[in-house]
Amino acid sequence: MTNIIIIPTYNEKDSIELLIKTIFNLIPDIYIMVVDDNSPDGTAKIIEKLKTQYPNLSLLKRAAKQGLGKAYVAGFKKIMESRQNFENIIMMDGDFSHNPKYLPEMIKLSKNHDLVIGSRYIHGGSVAKEWEFWRKLLSYGANIYVQIILGFKIKDWTAGFNLIKTSILKKINLDLLLPRGYAFQFSFKHHLLKNNARAIEFPIHFEERVKGKSKMSSSIITEAVFAPWKILFSEIKDFPTN
Ligand SMILES: Nc1nc2c(ncn2[C@@H]2O[C@H](COP(=O)(O)OP(=O)(O)OP(=O)(O)O)[C@@H](O)[C@H]2O)c(=O)[nH]1
Ligand SMILES: [Mg+2]
After folding, report:
1. Closest-approaching ligand to the CA atom of 138
2. Which domains does the chain carry?
3. How do residues 225-241 score in pLDDT, each as one tens digit?
4. Pairwise CA distance, residues 61 & 37, whole Å
5. Which ligand is nearest to the CA of 93?
């Protein structure tokens, strides 16, 4: 079974090297693709250097910052075009918020599932204790809001630590996914679920980033407020009327 992790990066020079080393120490035969949006801090240079040490590491360089969703879609397309047959693709942040210790369990669960979600909002899961009350409330509330509108029984729609079977990924039109942050995460899950993905959530503790800066912005949040309705209405529009 061949697994590849996509790590999108924008200014993650302080954590990316240790993260990559930690993952390869844990699972030496895994593949990692970093998708970097021309980070001004030189994240890509670190990857170029590490590539000489790790043959399973690759770098997809993009010209400018275009959002998390666009970076993932570029990575997905590259992987699906490659001659190598990757069975599973894992999505993971580059700032240690997603602890690599969960990877073996995630891979194990992929045996019987097409979508494995590292979930903060099922029993046993949790978010960073450093998060202010407003951020906890916003994240938890957003997930209930999305679940009510989109219907499928997923607790952590905005989760960024996911495993997807390449075979199910091939069924969805990647160009229809919303491009940024949270909206990308739940529109992606929604497309997979509509294609009958067998989904499972397993509990993780989401850790606060140790180094570097958050890329979350108020526009990413505003976009996420309207996005579930956009998804719902685009479905109604496509619904056959005769
Ligand atoms: N390539 C690329 N990566 C991005 C972009 N925006 C965010 N990322 C990366 O996506 C991952 C998640 O972004 P974060 O800024 O950590 O978002 P977050 O986890 O919601 O926010 P924090 O908890 O504050 O860290 C990190 O590895 C970022 O470097 C982007 O536009 N392009
Ligand atoms: Mg983060």
Report:
1. 1
2. 3-238 (3.90.550.10)
3. 888 888 888 876 665 54
4. 6
5. 1
